[in-house]
Amino acid sequence: MEPHSHGGDAAGWITPVQTRDERPWSYDPADFGAPVRTDPAWRYSDLDRLAPLFDASGVTGATVADGDFRPEDLVVIEAPEQAVATVVIEHAGAGALAENVEILVRPGAELTLVTLQLWDDGAVHSASHQAVVQRGATLKHVVVTLGGAAVRVNPSIRLEGDGAQAQLLGLAFADAGQHFESQVFLHHVGRHTRGNVTYKGALQGASARTVWIGDVLIGPDATGTDTYEQNRNLVLTEGARADSIPNLEIETGEIEGAGHASATGRFDDEQLFYLRARGIPEAEARRLVVLGFLAEVIQQIPDAALQERLTAAVEREMPMWQ
Questions:
Q1: CA-CA distance, 78 to 103, in Å (whole number)?
Q2: Could you tell me the CA-to-CA distances from 156 to 117, 165, 215, 217, 227 in Å, in that order?
Q3: Residue 18 buriedness (CB in 10 A; 0-12 / 13-18 / 19+)
Q4: What H or E segment, with its residue span, contains residue 77?
Q5: Model confidence over 45-77: pLDDT tens digits?
Q6: Who is most buried in 11, 77, 212, 279, counting CB within 10 A?
Q7: Could you give phi then psi for residue 178, rounded to 5 degrees?
Q8: pLDDT tens for residues 279-296?
Q9: Cβ-count burial of 95 within 10 angstroms (0-12 exposed, 13-18 middle, 19+ buried)?
């Protein structure tokens, strides 16, 4: 990255990479400076609260011998060939966490990865998930963020092999003062790959904020691709803000389909009227609308007990309607 040709100066203006696939990487943490707001990747982030995570003193690089990963950390999840597995990563309590997770889904494997951000109110967390999905393999990646002061979970998925598939799901419920962010990158490399991205957010309270940036890149050799991404947000009170930015880049004309959608709105008055006309009190009607809105994500988690637990956790986020 070089100084911007029109306006670059000592304030830190930089030229953004042309695609998300061009992200810089290195074995040496010293090669990565502290984020600045003029970097498009951090433009919408809560840099003030995430600042404790940017101190690289005492951090050393590590090498993954297999060679399949860009070695940014030691956290590696691998689904062997033809394996079927579900992995749940849960974050809770207080603290500050900078996290890198490397994911490899071998040919024909089916991996579900669920990451839960159930932090206490003061926690800060920034995570980068890098996944490679090989021939005929499937990855379901689920991000659920209900707690923390500033939480940033960014999955980058590379559909490398022919016939690889990915389903990327996200759910966020932000209260007053909370800042939840996800930047999703789905890169179609192999032929006849399939991708589906669905992220949903609910917000309530002054200065509650969610940020979703979705990037889909269909490479020049990714013929037969079928992909779609969407982000939906439900703003429950005044003072809350949801930023939603879908991006789609296509480098081949030989695809089956590609699209994206984004919508942010308030309660559906027709839904509320329908429920209240059947004798359901307004508070209960609003609760049911929110649960129904977020259920699309929760129901995709292949564990009934975890579904029930997350539904209860979402209900606890709605005290004003109890």
A1: 6
A2: 18, 14, 9, 11, 15
A3: exposed
A4: strand 76-79
A5: 888 888 888 876 544 444 444 444 334 445 899
A6: 212
A7: -90, 145
A8: 788 778 888 888 889 999
A9: middle
